[in-house]
Amino acid sequence: MSRYVTRFRPLRLGAQLSPVHRFRLSAQPPVPVAQPRSFHAGPKPSVASTTPTVTRGLPEFSLQDKVIVVSGGARGLGLTQAEALLEAGAIVHAIDRLPKPDPDFEKVARRATGELSTSLTYHQVDVRDVDALNEIVAGIADKHGRLDGLIAAAGIQQETPALEYKAEDVDKMMGVNVTGAFMTAQAVARQMVRLNSGGSIVLIASMSGTVANRGLICPRHVVRSAYNASKAAVLQLGRNLAAEWGEHGIRVNTISPGYIVTAMVEALFETYPERKTEWPKHNMLGRLSAPSEYRGAAVFLLSDASSFMTGSDLRIDGGHCAW
User: Fold this and answer.
1) Cys-Cys crosslink for 147: which of 80, 191, 194, 238, Cβ 3.0 to 4.6 Å?
2) Cβ-contact 93, 70 below 8 angstroms
3) What is the pLDDT of residue 4?
4) Are 56 and 84 in contact (CB under 8 A)?
5) Gap between the Cα atoms of 260 and 291, Å rounded
6) What positions carry a catalytic annotation?
7) How far apart are CA 51 and CA 270, in angstroms?
8) Global pTM?
9) Where are the domains of the chain?
């Protein structure tokens, strides 16, 4: 038997365990061992009564009163993640280029002010309009006296054969997906540095930044080269911003989603019905993901639960890239 294994004296029926501990000397104090209940007749205790209090709250996942910006937050994945942040207690400001957000946005905003006792506010701005972007972000920080986090989810995609791609289309793709993400992160980080508060920044990348998507082949053999290149750039951007801003207490990580069934993808399936059956075959779970499956990742990366995590990518792709 190992010299460090906890040993127990013989137990008489009805007596409590009396452990005798032997620990290696260290700076860490020994972890207390919970005393089990005495044996007695009667109904089995409920799960709630036997669960240690420390495991119920998980306060490190709380975002209570934290102020977080979500770009691309008017709809889709950005809005879904914004709602998760609200549920964790955050005050959320969504920015997007749409004149009016998706109808679901108003439902989430009403839920925020009512049921969740927080707020979801919409700001219209294109992430390529750097002056307006900086003004809005600075205004948010000034209003609350703090700015704690960002999810940079704004992005576009386009399917064009590489031999036919126009330079202006590539520039637009990079302008939104890379420069837009960079400038949004910069605007938020400037306020974090000004307020000397630190914080957490999450850039939405894609598994497409890691692999040349097997299965993402339409009848014309398009693999979205510009889009995939833009997401690879986001991954590298995240690592390098983490390296630069770590001294300010700012963490920067990325999330790389797999295929997500959104309203836009559902419309795509109407045009290319074969994709609905083909795409799920290329990951280990044999299905596509839902936006709701990325809620937990957002809360984790923006909360203290990930306080020692930076420069990392959280890939959630059903095992697509692991083949």
Assistant:
1) 191
2) yes
3) 45
4) no
5) 6
6) 227, 231
7) 49
8) 0.81
9) 65-318
